[in-house]
Amino acid sequence: MFDLPLGADLVEQRVGRLDRIGQKNDVNIHIPIVAESFMSRLFQWYDQGLDLFSGPNPAAQGLYEDYIERILAVDSKGLQDLIDACRIENQQRLMGLSEGRNKLLERSSFDSAIAAPIIEGIEHTQNSNALQAYLDISFELFGLDYEDLGDGINLIKPTSAAIHHPNVSADAQGHYSYPDIPEEGIRYTTDRNKALSREDVAFLTWEHPLVEQAIDKVLSENLGNSSVVVIKHPDIPAGTLLLETIFSIECLAPQYLGLRRFMPDNILRTLISPSQEDISNQMPFNEYPQAIELANEPIFKIVDSQQKPLQRMLKSAQAIADVQLQSVINTGLSQYQRARQEELDRLSALAKINPAVRDEEIQAMKNELDLGLAAIGASRTRLEAIRVIIIA
Fold first, then answer.
1. pTM above 0.85, yes or no
2. In what order do the strands lie in the sheet with 186-189?
């Protein structure tokens, strides 16, 4: 350094420009000093009093502000005594910070065993084709023109079918039914590396506004919430009616409580037989691409003639979903209670050795714990879709 700045943080900033992540060797600092000069006095204080050149010192800036005027005013005889006093106070402040931060550092330290499955999950999500498969279906149903440009890049743009498409409810049809698609279209990719190298290409993820709005359109509209399919099944007699239901779980709570990770967007599926039993484990979800095509009129007559049995099956589906919901609630309560209680215990332990932790903070955390437990306990199911399966 050609000079020493006035400020402990500024010194650390200068050193930090050299001591970067990945640095293999120690950083040697050379400072030209004129003896008996102001710079000499400043160096002596920075080195002996604040210990700025051996490593980061989070307490240094506060000490600098407290001592700078006295360092400038003291004579040469009293300088060393003042530096010694600063050094002792520096050690006391560092000890206090250490006692107050050890538990926080321990909790935030990297744990490879915990991180490994998280990293694996992220990589699996990024490498999965699930998003592209969903987009393909979504674009087709909403009448968008889809073109593969190659190299993992695609183009979508609205067509005349997107303005008045039979699969889009009338109340949702505006200029374009699909969200955020300009008339000239959008080039996009689901490959992060491609998106980083192409500024003109949008990077779509499950969290992208366009994808979230497209999903919200499906969830918020009535179209597609009920359907009928006619199939053949080798193990079920012809003429049998099954009722398939999809329930979502609603957990209404302020976002700051962070309940999403304890009560994720779970989907509960039931498949009710005429005997009011749930046989969903025996018949996994199927789109039935080989379904039997029948005219609407006979299907309407069959469903209309079976209104009372279907209503009984729907009540059974609701009861079964409520039992499944309770299992989800119990798991969420247990996980939330354990996680928040650990945080509360840590804060309470920290308050015993760190007077900076106020009683109000502990009480606020207790209140959040109670609110979270109440919100999870009040979760409920919402019927999202039903499908009548007619066995031919």
1. no
2. 144-150, 153-158, 186-189, 202-203
